[in-house]
Specification:
Layout: H1 23-38, H2 49-60, E1 69-73, H3 82-90, E2 100-103, H4 110-118, E3 124-126, H5 141-145, E4 149-155, H6 163-176, E5 179-184, H7 190-211, H8 215-223, H9 226-241, H10 245-252, E6 259-269, E7 273-282
Parallel strand pairs: 1-2, 1-4, 2-3, 4-5
Antiparallel strand pairs: 5-7, 6-7
Length: 283
């Protein structure tokens, strides 16, 4: 099912993006976003969004085709769903044929990535230097020389780029990459607004089970509820920032006219939560 776009796109501010938002709160917001990727709510969720992304990946790249690729993730933050996705993928591969997933960010979170690597199946890596999504600067040239194709991934990240930056990101993907994958947990429709509003009571329910050892997290969830406010507010703005297929095609420009662009949508939380995805690849 293709994603629906029912509202005009508005690139309004997200609180978590702003430099004035305290880093100790930003870290906790990103932790909750990672939990949202890996969380599985029985009855309402057939599986976690990460499992759904895994299903999409295997549909696109059935083994052994998958082993011919390396996946470079941009704007990885503390890791997002990529470490869990790496484990899902490589639990199904031979030990000598690990699929490579590489984390990167303009502000590298190497300490968090190093911890994730210890839990990985041998296919998780990271780039220690700062990496701009609009200028990879040959970060994976060694993988290319080894004959692997480089696909770029953006998990809950591409909507953060304004149109000018998004054009630069896609232009660099067209120049250096073999394809890109964009995943979003919201769409630009009314169903996504409902999903975002329901996030607040959900956080009140699940927080004690995931963050009971973090008194700061508990304080800013229940006493001064900054964390649920930011997550709901930014979630609504993320919905307004999301793009449809024709908008992404327009951003790709004439330089990528020979690229294929596919899109789809999978329900991650019944009845209103949908994961949308876009796959761009060279013909």
């Amino acid at each position: 099912m293709a994603p629906s776009v029912l509202l005009p796109r508005i690139h309004f501010l997200e609180i978590d993006d702003k430099p004035w938002f305290p880093s100790f709160l930003r870290t906790r917001v990103q932790s909750v976003l990672t939990t949202m990727w890996t969380f599985h709510l029985p009855i309402l969720q057939p599986s976690s969004p990460t499992h759904l992304a895994h299903r999409v990946l295997l549909t696109l790249f059935p083994p052994p085709l998958l082993q011919e690729h390396v996946f470079l993730d941009f704007c990885s933050g503390a890791g997002g769903p990529v470490p869990a996705l790496e484990r899902l993928v490589n639990d199904e591969t031979d030990r000598d044929e690990r699929v490579r997933f590489v984390l990167s960010d303009i502000h590298p979170h190497t300490e968090a990535w190093r911890a994730e690597e210890r839990e990985s199946r041998g296919g998780l890596g990271w780039i220690e230097r700062s990496v701009d999504a609009s200028d990879e600067a040959g970060a994976l040239d060694e993988e290319r020389r080894a004959g692997r194709k480089v696909f770029r991934t953006f998990f809950l990240a591409f909507h953060h780029f304004d149109d000018q930056m998004a054009k630069s990101v896609l232009k660099d993907a067209g120049k250096r990459g073999d394809g890109f994958l964009i995943f979003e947990l919201v769409d630009r429709d009314f169903a996504s607004f409902i999903t975002n509003l329901l996030l607040w009571p959900l956080l009140l329910i699940i927080t004690p089970f995931y963050y009971w050892q973090d008194p700061v997290h508990l304080f800013f969830t229940y006493i001064i509820p900054i964390l649920p406010f930011v997550l709901v507010f930014d979630g609504i703005i993320s919905s307004l920032r999301c793009r449809g297929k024709e908008e992404i095609r327009a951003l790709m420009g004439p330089e990528m006219s020979d690229w294929k662009l596919k899109t789809g949508s999978i329900t991650h939380t019944w009845p209103t939560g949908n994961m949308i995805y876009f796959i761009g690849s060279k013909n």
